[in-house]
Design goal:
Blueprint lengths: L16 H14 L7 H5 L5 H12 L10 H14 L3 H6 L6 H29 L10 E2 L11 H9 L12 H11 L8 H4 L17 E3 L2 E3 L6 H9 L16
Antiparallel strand pairs: 1-3, 2-3
Helix pairs in contact: 1-3, 7-8
The protein binds a DNA duplex through helix 3 and helix 6.
Length: about 250
DNA sequence: AATGCTTACAACCGCAATTCG
DNA sequence: CCGAATTGCGGTTGTAAGCAT
């Protein structure tokens, strides 16, 4: 499946400067993607996975180095409560940060603090035994089949094609962000996270605490009424993709 | 100075999802 | 429609650097 075994010798471990330069030149020349061709094009004895990872986590010019700011850490915590260990999605909302960066930072800096504070919270709760914890109704994300007639999704994809018509198959979730970044609107990185506009300019987001997600599960919560639930379950169109949450309330 | 421990982060691995022929 | 190839993600591991003893 992986096909890496076909190479008689594949280098592992830390990258040296020359390898970095070769990889950078290759990506600048051919663009990102087609990673299976990179070892051939560069002559590097590295597997495609290694090349991709090195570029995305280290060599890519847009990568932001240095300490995470307080704002970034705060946002990371909120997004983690919302998304769980979806590092790529979290990183997508932290400009210049890679999923690996976010994951490493979380595991080394935050995870311990959070888990210990959770313990404290739990023990505090347990002391006041009067409090009854109701189990949440967990709505697991369902697999989706996109028909070719799903115009909105098609348009989202179309938007993400560059001028030469080359396809970029990123999920629609990232499409808006990519598009905004392309337009050098880095300060609008958050757009895709809270709302989506359809082609008629209609904001299809829903306001205020529709639901929350914990540990990767979509959970019925607070103000989610029966009608909305019914709609979500019956409607196979846009509405069931929408999670509109005020991060600041998390 | 030598040794052991901890931390941070780069890199690897396995698997699921997606794309392609 | 199906299977192979490819991509991308998240968990885990390896190791260099920093620190304490």
């Amino acid at each position: 499946m992986e096909g890496e075994g076909s190479l008689s010798f594949v280098r592992k471990g830390a990258w040296n400067k020359m390898e970095d330069e070769l990889l950078t030149t290759c990506v600048q020349q051919y663009g990102e993607g087609k990673w299976h061709l990179v070892p051939i094009r560069t002559g590097l004895n590295r597997c495609r996975k290694s090349c991709r990872l090195r570029w995305l986590n280290y060599l890519k010019p847009s990568i932001k180095r240095g300490e995470f700011t307080e704002d970034e850490v705060d946002m990371m915590k909120r997004l983690h409560r919302l998304l769980g260990n979806r590092w790529s999605l979290i990183a997508g909302r932290l400009p210049g940060r890679t999923p690996n960066d976010v994951k490493n930072y979380w595991n080394t800096h935050i995870h311990k603090k959070v888990s210990s504070s959770h313990k404290e919270e739990y023990s505090t709760c347990a002391k006041s035994k009067k409090e009854i914890i109701k189990p949440h109704l967990v709505i697991k994300p369902q697999p989706r089949n996109f028909s070719t007639t799903n115009s909105t999704m098609l348009k989202m994809r179309f938007l993400n094609e560059d001028q030469s018509g080359a396809k970029n198959s990123q999920a629609c979730d990232d499409t808006l962000i990519t598009k905004y970044n392309d337009n050098n609107l880095d300060d609008k990185w958050w757009v895709g996270s809270t709302m989506m506009d359809d082609d008629k300019g209609c904001n299809v987001g829903v306001n205020n605490d529709l639901c929350c997600v914990q540990d990767g599960m979509l959970m019925k919560d607070l103000k989610l009424n029966d009608e909305i639930i019914k709609g979500l379950l019956e409607d196979q169109s846009w509405s069931d993709f929408l999670i509109d949450i005020n991060f600041l309330d998390l």
